[in-house]
Amino acid sequence: MIDKLAFIKLQDKKILAARSKGRGIYYIPGGKREPGETDSEALAREIEEELTLKLDPASVQFYGEFRAQAHGQSEGIMVNMRCYTASGIGEIVPSAEIEEVIWLSYSDREKVSDVAKLIFDDLKVKGLLE
């Protein structure tokens, strides 16, 4: 099981997504915890590393947890994604291994990983994604 965190950032009923250098699919920004980090600390570190955006720790809210086949991994290797919303301070600018950031709508669902598809479905049902 791969344990990951994700930052759900919505704007105009679209979701922020990123694409790593050399990759063909988009994912929801986030990453893995370092030893001893809380979800909030790890998410803030990952988002600042990937998007240069500082998350307001007081604004971090748990959104939901989703599990699916891990992209690019052997069959049966699952990813568990704990998702959070938060307010950010600063501008979203791709950095580190990120080649592109983009705002996706539900019609872009086929461009994302399996676990992100579940998140897209949940947001669509709740009327948060068009």
TrEMBL record:
Query: Which Gene3D superfamilies does the record cross-reference, listed alphabetically?
Result: Nucleoside Triphosphate Pyrophosphohydrolase
Check the record and name the InterPro entries matching this protein: NUDIX_hydrolase-like_dom_sf, NUDIX_hydrolase_CS, NUDIX_hydrolase_dom
- Which key words are in the record? Hydrolase
Q: Which PROSITE patterns match?
A: NUDIX, NUDIX_BOX
Gene Ontology molecular function, alphabetical: hydrolase activity
Q: Nudix hydrolase domain spans which residues?
A: 1-128
The protein depicted here goes by the name: NUDIX domain-containing protein
List the source organism: Dyadobacter sediminis
Entry cofactors? Mg(2+)
Give any Pfam family that matches: NUDIX
